Amino acid sequence: MTSAAHQSHLLIIEDDKGRREYTLDSPVYSIGRDPKCDIRLVSQFVSRRHATLVQLPNEDGSYYYRIVDGNLKGKPSANGLLINGRKLQAHDLHDQDKIVFGPQVHAVYYLLRRDAITTVPPDEYDITLISPNMTGDPEDDTATQPNSSQRQA
């Protein structure tokens, strides 16, 4: 029995409030200064609705996130997004992408993957019996046997 590869999406934000981690699993996240945003950024240099994260499907049944500048209605942020040093309107996130929202406000995206593991269901009839004389150390058995000088006496 094989379980599918497992992945976790993590966004680590650093802003005027410090460092915070967000595990991403929802279909959409709003990012910005507005208190109603799903991921709130604390900085005067960040737009109220600075960016949006959208979950999109991969062919294998897993998913990835795309970050889009501004809100879902198409209104861009005032300062835009710098992703890995390039100003972009939208970007499909990859492991360790760095997103800059403004001065001293940035995020790093991590895609954590755990490979598929093969699991075997336990055999419900596997019963191992242990005899009391099986629990000792095998090297201790030499102490209980007489050595050659005791046998000759």
UniProtKB/TrEMBL annotation:
Annotated Polar residues bias: 143-153
Protein origin, superkingdom: Bacteria
Gene3D superfamilies, sorted: 2.60.200.20
SMART domains per the UniProt record, alphabetical: FHA (SM00240)
InterPro entries assigned: FHA_dom, SMAD_FHA_dom_sf
A Pfam family per the record: FHA
Chain positions covered by the region annotation Disordered: 130-153
All residue ranges annotated as the FHA domain in the record: 29-88
Protein name per its UniProtKB record: FHA domain-containing protein
Native species: Leptolyngbya sp. NK1-12
